[in-house]
């Protein structure tokens, strides 16, 4: 992975039964804090039209270091690692990097 190329993250979260609203509330806290990071270029949250309760998050970062800074940030550690991950039945994360 080229360290200077923009990174896009596609995260698919399936909250456990009964946890959907809790996860959405945490995302509402996380999104503005993530967007305030200098290396975050965008952060969009979607509900899947095809898979009920599935949340899709599209994140765009300036480069690999900006993504790493995001993952090490206090808000990511507290909100995602501390509060969201225990509420998920399934989690898939895909890291994309543009060509050329």
Automatic annotation (TrEMBL):
Signal peptide: none annotated. GO terms for molecular function: monooxygenase activity. Residues 7-96 form the ABM domain. GO terms for cellular component: cytosol. Pfam families: ABM. Keywords: Monooxygenase, Oxidoreductase. This is Antibiotic biosynthesis monooxygenase. It comes from Duganella margarita. The lineage of its organism: Bacteria, Pseudomonadati, Pseudomonadota, Betaproteobacteria, Burkholderiales.
